[in-house]
Amino acid sequence: MDLIQANPAHLAELIELEPEIRRDASSQASRDAWLACLALPLTSPSDVAHSDCPHNVGELLRHPAPQAEWFTALKDYAKHHAHHPASPLLPSAVTAVYYVAIGLARLRCGTSITQLSDQELAKGIRWTLKQNWIDEDLREDLARALPNSAPQPP
Amino acid sequence: MTLPTTRWSEIDAADQTDSAMRRDALDTLLSRYWLPLRAHLERKFQIDTSHAEDLLQSFCLEKILQKKLLGLADPDRGRFRTFLLNALDHHVLNQYRADRALKRRPSEPLVSLDEVGDVSSPEENTQPDTQFDLDWARQVIQVTLDRMRTTCEVSGARQVWGVFEGRLLRNLYGHTPPLSYDELVEAHGFTSAEQAMNTLNTAKRMFNRTLRSIVTEYLNAPPHTVEEEIRQLKDVLLRNGGLTHSSA
Question: Does A16 touch chain B (CB under 8 A)?
Fold first, then answer.
């Protein structure tokens, strides 16, 4: 893209000054980032029936019969993004994705996909439960995945 | 099932390519902002592109690499861009005066030295050069967009760039309307217009985070100074809404 002929006034509109940035740091920004995470596309291997696999992260979280490795892939993805300064995803949103992936693997697959202690995991899940941009259905599932609740069979 | 692949090493490489190939970060800076500096020389001294590039190259070698001039830049003394521009003008005039002393007339600029006038020392002159500031602001946005696009591509967030480009960048030239949210839903497989809007908000934040990184790289200053520079860049662009690119 060559900006030489671009209208400077339009370029100026791209720039947000600090007060606007601060406003962006609100929970609305986290909610937007969370919803953007849910929209992330997923790719299925060619040997899996197309209709069986979720097409994005949101579908994965609502999948009736998810596989533990899906949650592992999601957890690893979130972990990388949470710690890399160049990630386009807000840390608050990917941190929530990280704990949701671990919690749902525990709840729906009866599998632990983390080496976190129960205490550490409970702390992370409780933090996620406090975020008002997590929808109610997911919040209920996540509460059931707290380590003081027994893991349930798939 | 896999998530978008993130190739962090490519992001890092994209950021570090220049510095790995050149001797220091200051030289990288001059390379990145070569076009506005060259346009300034062409305009001010009424010389052709080739001559301007020769002068800019000698400025880089003599002032930047050997004398570490930019280490003298003090954010409290005035704007970084003005400091840099004055240093460049000083260098060019000194070159011409040295040439004239040696009677090497052919290398003089078309404009006379008297016409150019005396140039203040880098610390003294804080008068803005509007066209240079506009060129500089435009180049900062260009570098920001280039880095944002690379980051989106290698981190598997192509949707973020696609929505930003379709909704905001198409309109930069004033004759192509932005894509509607319905068109974005279809193009990127969103389930709703709200999802496309949320992704656009994510993209805007990413652009502004990247912009602050880019400005921090050339200012090497605390956040409040970076914020002031960004405010000035935005003001320059708004004030010159009707102008196009510089012409020498």
Answer: yes
Using CA atoms in the order B236, B126, B68, B28, what is the torsion angle rounded to 10 degrees?
A: 10
ipTM of predicted complex: 0.70
Could you report the per-residue pLDDT of A74-125, keeping only the tens digit for each? Answer: 998 888 877 666 676 777 888 899 999 999 999 999 999 999 889 889 999 9
Q: Which residues of B touch A3 (CB under 8 A)?
A: 138, 141-142, 145, 172
Asked if B202's CB is within 8 angstroms of A88's CB, the reply is: yes
| Alpha-carbon span A36 to B190, nearest angstrom | 10
Give the integer Cα–Cα distance in Å for B127 and B119.
11
* Residue B2 β-bridge partners: A43
* Alpha-helical segments (H) within B46-129: 49-59, 80-101, 113-116
Q: Give the mean model confidence (pLDDT) for residues A120-132.
A: 90
Distance (Å, whole) CA B70 – CA B84: 8
Is the minimum CB–CB distance between A130 and chain B shorter than 8 Å? Answer: no
pTM of the predicted structure, to 2 decimals: 0.59
B15 burial type by CB count under 10 A (0-12 exposed, 13-18 middle, 19+ buried): middle
Report the alpha-carbon distance of residue B208 to residue B199 in Å, rounded.
Answer: 14
Chain A residues touching residue B142 (CB < 8 angstroms) = 1-3
Contact B221, B75 (CB under 8 A): yes
CB-based contact (8 Å) between B137 and chain A? yes
- For chain B, the domains span 8-126, 132-239
